[in-house]
Amino acid sequence: MFVAAAVLLLIGAAIWRIVSDDPAQRGYQSFAPPDPEAVISVKTLLASLMTVLRYKNVWRLSLVGCGLTGPVLAFAGLWGVPFFTTLHGISTAASSAITSTLLICYAVGATGLGILSDRIGLRKPVIQTGSLVALLAWIPMLFIPEIPVWLLVGLAILVGLASGSVTIGFAFVKESVPSRFAGTATGIYNMGSILGAMILQPAIGWLLDRNWQGALAGDVRIYDLAAYRSGFILLIAFNLLTVLAIGFTTETHCRQTVEGEENGQDS
Questions:
Q1: pLDDT averages per 10-residue partition of the chain, 267 residues
Q2: What's this model's pTM, rounded to 2 decimal places?
Q3: Which residues touch 62 (CB under 8 Å, ≥6 apart)?
Q4: Are 160 and 241 in contact, with CB atoms under 8 Å apart?
Q5: Span 54-246: which CATH code?
Q6: CB neighbours (10 Å) of residue 195?
Q7: With contact defined as beta carbons under 8 Å apart, do 243 and 237 qualify?
Q8: Residue ranges per domain, the chain?
Q9: Residue 167 and residue 184: Cα distance in Å, rounded?
Q10: Beta bridge partners of residue 220, listed in sequence order
């Protein structure tokens, strides 16, 4: 952790030294408004945001990011280890290894599926297939008791690889709007992904507590299979949301939307 902190400190120092607020500081053409005194009002910002949201792919893809990233971060980042140790009798170290494997495969899937999407020139079918495969892998991993460890590992790998398709959404949403809106659109998509974990982690905990039967190990609450099922139904619901939302998006064919183009925009 100290090494990671030191590396981040060096990166921060490099950003402070190298990155400029405006390209003009490095001798390039400025993107700033010609009037240095011009102030963008809150009303203008909200109007611009609403313009971006009129492109249906933007808000529908934000639901996709929410439904794919949320379950991965909620399970692998918080509830996966106690679930494996309590319900499957797997050691803490081994449970941590399984959840870490899921996250590693999530990164591998993001890279591999991104390359595949670029090569075939399509975004929607890759994310659609990934979300469906993730859904079908989540269900047995979370709800079938006494499943063999090797199968749990295989399902975790499958969930990670398939859920990695969520990163294609950044290119997908950027291409769904004119280039001047690309930053806003990707920001909305990223916020959707973060929102999934923000909602699921405490919501699952709340449902677990509601269904807790009173078992303790020291001062730590122990939840049974019924409690975990009540909480993990949210993971399935969010992933199902992705499957449904991606079905209503419009394919960009890896091509940037140009100004005035109606493709993917609500009337």
A1: 96 91 79 61 80 92 95 93 90 95 96 96 97 96 91 96 96 93 92 93 93 86 88 95 95 88 51
A2: 0.81
A3: 173, 188, 189, 191, 192, 193
A4: no
A5: 1.20.1250.20
A6: 16
A7: no
A8: 54-246
A9: 16
A10: 217
